[in-house]
Design a protein that fits this description.
The complex is a heterodimer of chains A (708) and B (279). Chain A is an alpha/beta fold and 708 residues long. Chain A is built from 23 helices and 30 strands. Chain B has 279 residues and is α/β, with parallel strands linked by helices. In chain B, strand 6, helix 6 and strand 7 form a beta-alpha-beta unit. Classes of the chains: A alpha/beta (708), B alpha/beta (279). At the A-B interface, helix 12 of A face helix 5, helix 6, helix 7 and helix 9 of B.
């Protein structure tokens, strides 16, 4: 087989040698535009696992790589002068130049033809008659650009600016540095790659970069600026330049990596943000997979298909983690308010690949430090602390024994607001789970605020009496706290039982008229609510207050006011459902008026030592709906008005709108609301384990977590 | 976990006689349901019509579509057809619905693909409304399962359906979707738990393996390189079946329907033997 490879980077060289090694009859030529000894970039990082695959793929090059590796074990996080270290990370680094030399030598030994300093303008005529043409020509791949219609690359430019330097500073850890000056926040990703030199990447937001005048700076100016800024960390060492220009990172994805006998490899096909250090690793693993597929398959077409099918899921997983990580570093500004220990834990768990228990396996001492810090046991000599999920939380005069929240199911089996058997049993079960806080299903504040005829409520005094009895029994043997979720379903009221779907209106027979911020139905074919007038709003506020008084009498520890997901109060907040032209509609300040009225009235009526929580939408998840910026402002306004805890929900502002229930989205909304609005949060999402609860609360992404 | 078996209604060359005989034999076995798949532009029999025939020659076995491509059909007619199968089977139908994955089926039906997800959500609501109308058929409506792993598909299950039917793949692919389905279900305020169904492809025995793989590659050719991956999931040995069933059962799957990749009646007996040999 005749193989032409464009690009003598790690991907191209490694593929060349692996193909030739598997079958010496292959005729393999690699063409590179740069000289053989040119080096751009400094060091590359490999994990143990990647090194294991090198050992299996070609033992000779592995041994040479292994001889030149520098090993380190720790990640250092330096924030404003403090250092937090987490060990057990097992990294290996090598200089890019040395890696390329090893791979070039091995190619020559095996008889791969290497052509340097040759500029290729037309890959097809250069490799005319080749059976396989491999484009390993990097993120800026010519081959990919010539056939954009086929490969359909999507290139997403990062919002930050970064520059690669080297330094003579010896490091014994992967080191993150965060430093603020009058222009803004700068961060460094630095790691050793040989005994005397380290990679030193400086990154900052575009705004800070411009404020610092770096957009117009020469290479020497940039070096001087960064050397000065990081003088303390560099300790007199110099920054070294090597075509060190400020860039924004392009994340590249392609619809396909192959076209006939052409295949994209490494950065040409996909890139993943440098902060997870996996570009070279993915490229060389691509080469292994492609060489394997070619050896295993009789025809090239199915070999290329198998290569892509094999690699695409792996690459996409890394790209997902890289996206999380890239976003994290674009928004670090937001989390630098955290104390150094929490900040370090937040950083280490940023991509979702590592959680609390993973870190405990790697570095028990670090995690014990986190536990101790989190539990507030800062005295010296403390050796035992509970994991973060099991640390109590104080909200006003109420303490939840741990950070785990269990919500009861929404059973529709009651009558006239009196809970049915499902709810009664559910309370006992939830209180016996060991959760620190139990949430009731929505309790309607008025008969017309019920979702269905069977929804429980707190709109009659006998409802309170019944809940008092139920609570006494359910809490008999534990310190569990119970919160009443008070709700008015608004334009989502008057529906059939939810066992065969939600938002199915009862219709004229058996249904009742609806109210909402504006006369807009919740979904197509659903009844039109009446726009609440002043008297209607007062009635809703009064009903919230009466329900809160009943909740206090019944002995609930918290009230949770439901202002999310299309409910009555939520309809005022969302621009999708509030088209009012009076003082309750229009600007966010106006749309907040009614929710704040409800909150203040409840706060006045609810015992001072007990907390009030509010459930809000982080995002409406529908075109024209409210987004996260609004939610941050809403949360801050609610906190000002006496709210002690925000439950972060999303979607259901209109029929059919739901968020993604992936691992990250809902928790990342909670993170942003908590740290920008400076209010404790309760996160919802796929948080099914105590490990995840510890990971989330220790990182300061939430204070309490639903266990779903 | 209950185990059902598929009718080979989308295995090319299968005739009506074989389908009816297949249904009869499955009824005698340990299987809890008979499943059918839906594909318009392919040598395949229409799923609900096939189930109507199966209903006529069986008395106890469940009948499930995995899945009917909803947006290809008129909702009023689909409501009537499903109610008819439900009536003819004495209430044994489970109606699985999805948007399908093949543009050519939409092309063949003259239906645009754009907006098909929203149309399916609206269709589920319309089916239930029609079944509830006083002039509708006097049978209990069938449960509705919805398929698909995308965010809108998960939302459809949580808001409108009675449960989720997985489109195939190893247990871990089921786990990834089910985690999201459960969270969305709770977020929607649904009482109880979603029904959870799975499916897998089967060609038991050395003599059937190669033909089964060829069928899988052909049936899934539209997925490009993934046809090979999907084909690699074909269950060909008792060990394959045991591991597959155990994996799904541990994740809370309530019913697994194993679809034949070869239309040969021996497959029924072979699967029956495997199930009988499991602890």
């Amino acid at each position: 087989m005749r193989v032409g490879i464009l690009g003598a980077g790690p991907a191209g060289l490694y593929l060349g040698l692996l193909l030739k090694r598997a079958d010496p009859s292959h005729d393999v030529t690699i063409v590179e535009r740069n000289p053989a000894d040119a080096t751009y970039g400094w060091g590359v990082v490999f994990s143990d696992r990647t090194l294991g695959s090198f050992r299996d793929a070609d033992h000779r090059s592995f041994v040479r790589i292994d001889d030149d590796l520098v090993l380190w074990d720790a990640i250092d996080v330096r924030l404003e002068g403090e250092v937090v270290r987490c060990g057990g990370q097992a990294f290996s680094g090598i200089s890019r130049k040395r890696l390329l030399q090893i791979l070039q030598d091995r190619c020559r030994e095996l008889g791969v033809a290497l052509e340097f300093e040759e500029e290729v303008e037309d890959p097809w005529s250069r490799f005319e008659g080749a059976d396989l043409l491999v484009a390993a020509d990097g993120a800026n791949s010519l081959t990919r650009r010539l056939h954009e219609g086929i490969f359909r690359p999507r290139i997403n430019e990062g919002r930050s600016r970064y520059v690669w330097f080297g330094t003579t500073l010896p490091l014994d850890a992967f080191t993150f540095v965060f430093r603020r000056n009058e222009h803004g926040l700068f961060q460094v990703h630095a790691y050793p790659f040989d005994g005397s030199t380290s990679t030193f990447i400086v990154e900052t937001t575009e705004a800070t970069w411009r404020r610092a005048g770096l957009d117009e700076a020469t290479e020497d100016d940039s070096i001087a600026y960064c050397q000065d800024l990081f003088a303390e960390e560099l300790g007199g060492h110099r920054l070294l330049s090597n075509r060190s220009l400020w860039l924004s990172f392009p994340t590249i994805r392609c619809r396909t990596w192959r076209h006939g006998s052409v295949v994209l490899l490494g950065d040409a096909a996909h890139t993943a943000h440098f902060s997870i250090g996996s570009g070279t690793k993915l490229a060389m693993e691509d080469a292994i997979a492609l060489a394997d597929a070619v050896a295993r398959r009789e025809d090239l077409d199915s070999a290329l298909a198998e290569f892509e099918a094999e690699r695409r899921p792996v690459v996409e997983r890394f790209q997902q983690a890289a996206r999380q990580s890239r976003t994290y570093f674009e928004e670090t500004e937001r989390s630098t308010r955290l104390e150094p220990t929490q900040f370090a834990f937040h950083l280490l768990t940023r991509s979702g690949r590592m959680g609390y228990e993973d870190l405990r396996l790697r570095d028990p001492a670090f995690v014990t430090g986190v536990d101790t810090w989190f539990a507030g046991r800062r005295k010296t000599g403390v050796v035992v602390s509970p994991p973060p999920a099991l640390v109590p939380l104080s909200l006003r005069g109420v303490e939840t024994p741990n950070r785990v929240v269990v919500a009861m199911r929404d059973d529709d089996d009651g009558t006239d607001g009196t809970p049915g058997d499902g709810v009664v049993r559910g309370l006992g079960v939830a209180c016996g789970t060991g959760a620190g806080l139990v949430l009731t299903p929505g309790l309607a504040i008025s008969a017309d605020g019920r979702v269905t005829l069977g929804s429980p409520g707190l709109y009659r005094d006998d409802h309170a009496t019944q809940w008092e009895g139920l609570l006494t029994e359910a809490r008999a043997d534990g310190e569990v706290r119970v919160a009443a979720r008070l709700t008015h379903a608004g334009r989502r009221a008057s529906c059939r039982p939810r066992n065969h779907g939600v938002d199915r209106p009862l219709g004229v027979a058996g249904g009742w008229p609806l109210g909402s911020a504006s006369a807009i139905p919740y979904g197509p074919g659903m009844p039109v609510p009446r726009e609440l007038d002043e008297a209607g709003m007062t009635a809703v506020v009064d009903a919230f207050v009466s329900a809160a008084r009943r909740a206090a009498a019944a002995g609930f520890d918290l009230v949770l006011l439901h202002m999310a997901q299309g409910s009555m109060v939520a309809s005022y907040l969302s621009p999708l459902s509030n088209h009012r032209d009076d003082s309750y509609g229009g600007s966010l300040e106006a749309r907040l008026r009614f929710p704040l009225r409800v909150l203040r009235a409840v706060r006045d009526a609810w015992p001072n030592e007990r907390p009030v929580a509010v459930s809000i939408n982080a995002v409406d998840e529908a075109p024209g709906g409210a987004g996260l910026d609004q939610a941050v402002e809403v949360a801050a306004a609610l906190r000002e008005a006496g709210c002690d805890l925000i439950e972060v929900r999303a979607g259901q502002a209109v029929l059919g709108a739901m968020p993604s229930y992936g691992l990250y989205e809902l928790v990342s909304y909670s993170d942003r609301i908590r740290n920008e609005a400076q209010v404790p949060t309760l996160a919802f999402g796929p948080i099914g384990t105590i490990d995840r609860v510890s990971t989330i609360v220790a990182a300061g992404r939430a204070d309490l977590c639903h266990l779903v | 976990m209950r185990v059902g078996i598929g009718l080979p209604n989308a295995v090319p060359g299968t005739d009506g006689t074989l389908l009816v005989e297949w249904a009869r034999r499955a009824e005698q076995g340990p299987f809890t349901s008979l499943g059918v798949v839906d594909r318009l532009r392919y040598d395949a029999h229409e799923p609900l019509t096939t189930l109507a025939a199966a209903a006529a020659v069986t008395e106890r076995i469940g009948l499930v579509t995995m899945v009917v491509i909803g947006p290809l059909r008129n909702p009023a007619l689909l409501a009537k057809e499903a109610a008819t199968v439900q009536a003819m089977s004495g209430g044994r139908l489970v109606l699985g619905l999805g948007v399908g994955a093949r543009p050519d089926d939409y092309e063949a039906a003259g239906i645009p693909t754009a907006g098909r997800g929203e149309r399916l959500a609206a269709m589920i609501r319309e089916l239930r409304d029609r079944w509830d109308q006083p002039d509708g058929p006097k049978v209990d409506p069938p449960p509705i399962l919805a398929g698909g792993a995308s965010d809108p598909a998960v939302a459809r299950v949580a808001l409108h359906a009675d449960g989720y039917v997985h489109g195939g793949g190893p247990p871990r692919s089921f786990a990834r979707v089910v985690e999201r389905v459960r969270v969305a279900w709770r977020d929607a305020g649904r009482p109880g738990e979603p029904m959870l169904w799975g499916q897998g492809y089967l060609a038991l025995g050395d003599d059937a393996r190669e033909r089964g793989l060829a069928y899988m590659r052909d049936y899934y050719a539209f997925t490009g390189p993934f046809a090979e991956k999907i084909a690699a999931g074909l269950l060909t040995t008792p060990q394959d079946v045991a591991a597959f069933l155990r994996g799904y059962a541990d994740l809370g799957c309530q019913e697994m329907v194993l679809l034949p990749a070869v239309a040969e009646l021996e497959q029924i007996g072979r699967l029956q033997d495997v199930l009988g040999s499991l602890p």
